[in-house]
Specification:
heterodimer, A: 2 domains, flat, B: alpha+beta, D-Maltodextrin-Binding Protein, domain 2, 7-stranded mixed beta sheet
């Protein structure tokens, strides 16, 4: 019997169901990426209509090849400084912030009194707007009337007072502290979820075998949390390297260039200098570096397992 | 028979589709022609604009729709995105430098207004303060290659000056009616303020442009406009002694302890709060501050003065047009937009805006009876300088290096000489980049 059209199409049906999602992905992710890459080879002021098909001639006039990329590598030390500064905040977030998140998750997982309340409290900072958080901490750190300086003075440590966000020695760390305060709640929730998936029987068996708390943590909790830790680390790296609103709300990249990060530099190239092509080149370089980091990091758990 | 779940699902789909279709259509309450659309960023003027739109509709039958997009950074992005897709409204503002306005003109987004200004013996043109119009105009043989003439319509005028708190000056033992007019005397207020537990000087110097205003004022004061323009053109180095003198002023300012702690990361809103709360003796701020201070502390007693002189030479002030509107050349309603802006900038409407928003009107006749603080700001309009009035504009990267360098001087991590070297090195880099671009036959799109 001849097969019907429906039968013949049957093997392709799954792909048909994927089509809407693929179309959306292509329109909103792949096409903009190619447009971004094309724009990174232009000297474009961001005003002329951006349809390359409608104004090929105009685009031809602006084509600069890889010169924008070359300029980022050879003539833009501030961009690389900003990269190092974002990496410093990221290093603090990866270690201090995530360690704090893990410790708190372990504490809450032990069914403390009021654990539910702690869960809620720890998750408040992440859901606050970065601008709001920035403004709150700007007031706390204020050099003239800030709570932090006031507390130091009350404790007899008046000599330590300073304008924390305007002092080049402390500005970047001060911003990093705000970022960690705001961000630790994400790691906390994810670690807590991970801890709750570890079977209690493993701990019981270890206890029977005489394993102490450290041993149980080292040989049960940590290995089983590794996949979660990897996800938390990748999200921490991506989220922290792309820090922006917090910087704008607290220091605007200052004093000098001390709290500049890659996104503030890209923003400055775009809206400060109206060099959209150059900003796209900076964005692509930045994106590729982040992608490389993520890929390298994703290989770690495989090796560990 | 259809299950209850399937029926609900189909109902939800149909309801969602109807909502989408209804959302795409025009509002059923909208009758008559579509209104003239105006995009702006001025949160403080939103209510006044809405009232003026109501009056205009009453008088002419033409509906005006003011759309506010704030803060200004967001507005800049909105306007640029709209320009890229030819989606600009009938009337809009361009926030930026001469280069940005030139880009909009080159892309065909701005209606030239020279002919309109010249009608009836220059009636419209002569109604404005000349400086407010000049910042919206291009002179013959301008470096951007724009056809000479007026392109924008100023709504108000502004200047940025030194503002002093009269009560605090008296508290420090100084004459509140005669604040220090020379740089040396100004710096001495630093120690006095410290001794009395108040802040000496505040300004939003996290926002680099406010540093640039003050530095440019002093550069012109100390060496004259010509030498400043020569520097921008690459014919005079930032390491020159005259520029070093300008940078040293900031080292002197730092050493005087006059600036508030953390001034380099202080946003202007915070500086305005500190001054309005009578916690600072001096503020470096613009005309808009009058309205801000009035709303924060109506009892605040303050005066406005030109920046203290370093030498016995004329002092200048940063100013010109406060806010300006441009007409979309691609709008089919461009003639109506011109008519509306003529109405908006005529005396009665400008007087209303003055009363409602405390900004200096761009219309000279409306500015004849200004309240005292605004009158003091307005006095300096003739001495106003503005980058859009310069024959040559400096590159953004150099301006940033200069302003960030000043921040470094203020926090004591760099000397004026180091900053001058750093700025000159960025200048050289920019000059060679531009030279290589022209050698390569490239230019920004026209």
């Amino acid at each position: 019997m001849a097969s019907t059209l429906s039968d013949r199409l049957h093997p392709y049906k799954p792909y048909l169901f994927l089509l809407p999602a693929l179309a959306l992905f292509a329109i909103f992710s792949i096409y903009p990426f190619f447009l971004l890459t094309a724009t990174s080879c232009l000297n474009w002021d961001g005003v002329f209509p951006a349809n390359p098909f409608a104004s090929l001639q105009a685009y031809g006039q602006q084509f600069v090849g890889l010169r924008n990329y070359l300029e980022v590598f050879t003539h833009d030390p501030v961009f690389w400084t900003s990269f190092a500064q974002a990496a410093y905040i990221t290093a603090l977030a990866l270690t201090v912030q995530n360690a704090l998140a893990l410790l708190l998750a372990i504490a809450v997982n032990r069914r403390l009194v009021g654990a539910g309340a702690y869960r809620t409290i720890f998750f408040i900072p992440p859901i606050l707007s970065e601008i709001v958080v920035g403004l709150i901490w700007f007031w706390i750190y204020d050099g003239n009337f800030g709570i932090f300086n006031n507390a130091l003075t009350q404790l007899g440590l008046g000599a330590w007072t300073r304008s924390w966000l305007a002092d080049p020695k402390t500005a970047l760390t001060a911003v990093a502290i705000i970022h960690m305060w705001k961000g630790f709640g994400w790691g906390f929730v994810m670690f807590l979820a991970g801890l709750q998936t570890i079977p209690e029987e493993l701990y019981e068996a270890a206890r029977v075998d005489g394993a102490n708390a450290w041993y149980r943590f080292r040989h049960i909790t940590l290995p089983l949390l590794l996949p979660v830790a990897m996800v938390v680390s990748i999200l921490t790296i991506l989220g922290t390297m792309q820090i922006f609103a917090l910087i704008i709300a607290t220091t605007q990249g200052g004093p000098g260039y001390h709290t500049e990060v890659p996104i503030t530099r890209i923003f400055s190239s775009m809206l400060g200098s109206s060099r959209f092509g150059y900003a796209c080149a900076q964005g692509i370089i930045f994106g590729l570096i982040l992608l490389t980091f993520s890929l390298i990091q994703m290989r770690f758990p495989r090796r560990s397992t | 028979m259809m299950s209850k779940g399937t029926l609900s699902f189909r109902f939800a789909i149909v309801a969602a589709a109807l909502l989408v279709v209804a959302g795409c259509g025009r509002s059923p309450t909208a009758k008559g022609p579509a209104p003239l659309r105006v995009w702006h960023w001025m949160t403080d003027r939103e209510e006044a604009f809405t009232e003026l739109a109501r009056r205009y509709r009453q008088q002419t039958g033409t509906a005006i729709h003011f759309e506010l997009y704030a803060p200004s950074d967001v507005y800049v992005q909105k306007v640029r995105s709209a320009a890229q897709t030819d989606g600009l409204p009938d009337i809009y503002g361009v926030l930026g430098e001469t280069r940005d306005i030139a880009s909009f003109i080159n892309a065909g987004h701005v209606l030239p207004l020279e002919a309109e200004m010249g009608q009836d013996n220059d009636a419209w043109r002569s109604s404005f303060f000349p400086k407010t119009l000049a910042v919206n105009a291009f002179v013959p043989n301008n470096p951007q290659g724009i056809a000479p003439g007026v392109y924008g319509v100023p709504i108000d005028a502004m200047s940025i000056q030194l503002i002093y708190n009269k009560k605090l000056l008296a508290k420090l033992g100084l004459n509140p009616d005669s604040p220090p007019s020379m740089w040396k005397d100004f710096l001495q207020v630093g120690q006095l303020a410290k001794a009395h537990g108040v802040l000496g000087f505040v300004s939003g110097w996290a926002e680099l442009w406010l540093i640039d205003c003050l530095a440019t004022d002093y550069a012109i004061h100390l060496m004259g406009m010509d030498k400043v323009e020569q520097t921008y053109a690459g014919k005079k180095a930032y390491t020159d002694t005259e520029w070093l003198r300008v940078l040293r002023l900031f080292a002197e300012l730092r050493d005087s302890r006059l600036p508030a702690e953390g001034i380099v990361t202080m946003v202007n809103k915070r500086a305005e709060q500190l001054f309005a709360n009578e916690q600072a003796v001096f503020a470096f701020n613009g005309t808009w501050a009058v309205n801000v201070y009035r709303s924060m502390n109506p009892a605040l007693e303050y005066g406005v003065m030109m920046l203290p002189k370093v030498k016995d030479r004329p002092m200048v002030t940063w100013g010109g047009a406060g806010s300006s509107f441009f007409i979309n050349a691609k709008s089919p309603k461009a003639p109506q937009a011109v008519a509306f802006l003529k109405w908006l900038t005529s005396q009665p409407q400008q007087e209303y805006l003055l009363q409602a928003t405390q900004n200096i009107p761009a219309n000279r006749a409306a500015a004849e009876a200004l309240p005292p603080p605004l009158a003091a700001f307005a006095e300096a309009i003739d001495a106003a300088v503005h980058p859009r009035l310069f024959a040559v504009q400096e590159q953004s990267a150099v301006i940033e290096a200069f302003d960030k360098g000043i921040q470094s001087i203020l926090i004591g991590e760099a000397t004026p000489e180091q900053v001058a070297e750093a700025v000159q090195s960025v200048k050289q880099r920019e000059l060679s980049r531009l030279a290589s671009q022209s050698a390569y036959g490239q230019h920004t799109v026209r």
